[in-house]
Amino acid sequence: MPGTRKRVLVLCTGNSCRSQMAEGWIRARMGDRWDVGSAGTHPVHAIHPLAVRAMAEVGVDISGNRPQAVERFLNDPWDLVVTVCDYAQQDCPVFPRPVPRLHVSFYDPAQAQGTDDERMVVFRRIRDEIRDRLLPEIERAG
Which residues lie below 8 Å from residue 117, measured CB to CB, with a gap of 6+? Predict the structure, then answer.
């Protein structure tokens, strides 16, 4: 059907940084072609404030996002499931419907040490890596 967008779910462990940034990028850059959601295999209570800040610097607002459990999405019809960390790839649940999977792993910026300014360097690097490495892979998958 013309104009129908595909659906992609991005998974990581806590759903606080990498998958949230990926969701933001996909929505901002590919939202005309993809509906996007993100979830965690073991979601934390809140999105990481430095992830929100890093994305805001490039004009992408993820401040209203909330971590969610992947189990909430298992019965939804997905065209693609993307894992952005090795643990989520290993721990990814079985979806009732067959769904193509894509794995592109990124360092967890929440593990960065130091001052907020020092940690922001890591968040920016991961934000840009997600844009530069993941979006072309999704484009190819679409």
Answer: none
Active-site annotation holds for 17:
no
User: Tokens in use for 78?
Assistant: 């997905």
10-45, pLDDT tens digit by residue? Answer: 999 999 999 999 999 999 999 999 999 999 999 999
CATH of the domain at 97: 3.40.50.2300
**Catalytic-role residue among 11, 12, 36, 70:** 12
Residues 6+ apart with CB under 8 A from 89: 83, 103, 105
Catalytic position from the list 92, 99, 135, 141: 92
The answer to whether residue 11 sits within a structural domain is: yes
Residue 94: pLDDT over 90 = no
Residue 116 belongs to some domain of the structure = yes
Active-site position among 85, 110, 120, 138: 85
pLDDT digits (tens, 9 = 90+) for 118-139: 999 999 999 999 999 999 999 9
12 a catalytic residue: yes
Task: Write out the residue range of the structural domain in which residue 98 sits.
Answer: 6-134
